Amino acid sequence: IEECTEIPAGTEFIPMSVSDGDFEFNVAASGKIGEYELAIKPMCMTFEDYYAGFSKESHPSLTVSPRVGRMDRRGGEITYMTISCDPRGSSGKLEGDLVVVLPEDNSRLSYHFSVNSI
Description:
Elements: E1 21-27, E2 34-40, E3 48-54, E4 62-65, E5 68-71, E6 79-85, E7 92-102, E8 107-117
């Protein structure tokens, strides 16, 4: 079984109406990039490829890594993603919705991030 290495063209990152989690962290508006480590417990019965990205309405300072990977099956290893915020001088509350698409399971996870850029 071959693991996906890139996001297919046309993949959309549309958040769910109800978030699977809400997270908040602080970053200096003119300082270094702020990061938050998100831990996702595997929930599917089989290994699942995923594509991760922020919705188009999200603040452009927010990024996720890795964007493509494979989640373990239920009870297996936790998947860790690093959420980064590089405000480049923007201050205030920078918000975004991270969407993790599980194409083989025909489902998605959605996480809301609020970054206080001060």
